[in-house]
Amino acid sequence: MRTRFLSKLTNGEVEEYLDRNDLIFVPVGVTETHGALPLDSETVLAEAFALKMAEKTEGLVLHNLPYFFAGATPVGRGTVQMSTRDGAAYLDRIAQSLLNQGFRRQVYVTMHGPAYLTVSPMIRDFFDRTKAPILYMDMIMAINSIKNLSFDFLEKFNDMAIGAYSVLGRLEDVPLNVPESNSVSYDLEKVMKANADNPASPLGKFAYQSGAVGYYFDQPSDHLYTPLLKTPEERDQYAKSGVEAIGEIVAKLEMSSVVKSLREVDEYTKSNSLKKYGQWLPK
User: Fold this and answer.
1) Per the domain annotation, does 38 fall within a domain?
2) Cys bridge to 4: 54, 99, 141, 201, which one at CB 3.0-4.6 A?
3) What is the pLDDT of residues 5-53, one digit of tens each?
4) 8 Å CB contact between 20 and 29
5) Alpha carbon distance 176, 272 (integer Å)
């Protein structure tokens, strides 16, 4: 196809696509303080993964969804915070529209820790209402499910974040020589200690990630360590490493099997669950 991004296609191209396929990937992002990287880093990561998945499965991508629940980062004034409820309601309207237009198989993709607080409830409620099983891929969990990666995910996170900009043709959006400030720290041990000292830290073990207790970072730089990029060559090196890591992850997730399973869940729901128990399932 000329492009995988829905909004960059003409309506005729989308209608032609829907005559042969019903698959769309929806990367859900966030705009938040992110060290020396742009505020949309984790949006771009989700979009890059979604694009590579769409290329593997002949799917489309609905992007430009960057304003969802950020979590503990509103201490940075560049962060845009949306409540989990409002975010879920907004995504639900998008999912319903896509379903109405013919996108029966929808895959929601995130690369942001607290994103599940928004997306998971929408996925379940949408299914009860429509009986259309749409899929949520929390990439943190998806990556951790891969047993034979050639690298450590956490060690490659910044590489992938920078590589994602390269995948989308936006590498020059990643700035060079960003000075240290209350938003940027290049001292990994300092960032780790600040997070360990946060009184919310010992409570985090009682539920998945930030679902245990509400809290904020002490200062924006506590959110995440990012590397100091001094030259375009250093940036290119990180990007190359990150693009390779993204490619390996997508390959090992075997996306053709994933979207095939999504189709099978839909068929099973219709042929089994609805036929046997449809009279008292949620309407």
Assistant:
1) yes
2) 54
3) 999 999 999 999 999 999 999 999 999 999 999 999 999 999 999 999 9
4) no
5) 56
